[in-house]
Design goal:
By secondary structure, the chain is an alpha/beta fold. The chain has a single domain, classed as 3-Layer(aba) Sandwich (Rossmann fold). The chain is about 50% helix and about 15% strand. It is built from 7 helices and 5 strands, in the order βαβααβααβαβα. Helix 6 links the parallel strand 4 and strand 5. This is ATPase.
Length: about 180
């Protein structure tokens, strides 16, 4: 039976680095849909980018996350997602579109424990795919904390430590269940 684990939280909080290290421990991992959408849009000259058309970007990220969920659901073992359907639906909800958020409550469920990276200004950096500022990242983090809690998930905040300690933190909590 598949165990679908979410790694979410503040942009620039070290999720991708942690995910990469967790894959070295034998876990199946799923890269962040948003970054994949941005990379594809930049490559093809598309406009579904968070800084051009946020709603179109989120809808594409949501569709990609739904495909990722479906592919992982039919596997065995643990799959760890860098973000999830809930992240995109939370952002759409913030824009006033509650349809996807409400659908998540009944149709899609991940493992009950969700790992969130907290805001960490010392490691936050923008790049070609992450152009928003730290304040926007903190706002997003606060929305995600609220929404994951509202959906009944058990939120575990990752410590602001090196990647090896974070890997150990995740491994310990995954074994506790």
């Amino acid at each position: 039976m598949a165990k679908l684990v979410i790694l979410s939280g503040c942009s620039g909080g070290g999720k991708s680095t942690l995910l990469s290290n967790l894959s070295k421990h034998g876990f199946a991992t799923v890269e962040e849909p948003g970054r994949r959408v941005v990379a594809q849009q930049l490559k093809t000259g598309g406009t579904a980018l968070p800084w051009l058309d946020l709603k179109a970007f989120l809808e594409q990220a949501l569709a990609m996350a739904e495909q990722d969920y479906a592919a992982a659901r039919d596997t065995s073992g643990i799959s760890i997602f860098d973000r999830s359907l809930i992240d995109a639906a939370s952002a759409l909800r913030h824009l006033g579109d509650d349809l996807w958020y409400e659908r998540l409550c009944s149709e899609f469920r991940y493992d009950n424990r969700v790992f969130l990276t907290p805001p960490w200004p010392e490691i936050y950096a923008t790049d070609n795919e992450r152009r928003h500022g730290f304040e926007d990242a903190v706002d997003e983090y606060e929305r995600l904390c609220r929404d994951y809690d509202d959906l009944g998930y058990d939120v575990a905040i990752l410590p602001k430590t090196g990647v090896d300690e974070r890997v150990e933190f995740v491994l310990n909590l995954l074994q506790d269940k």
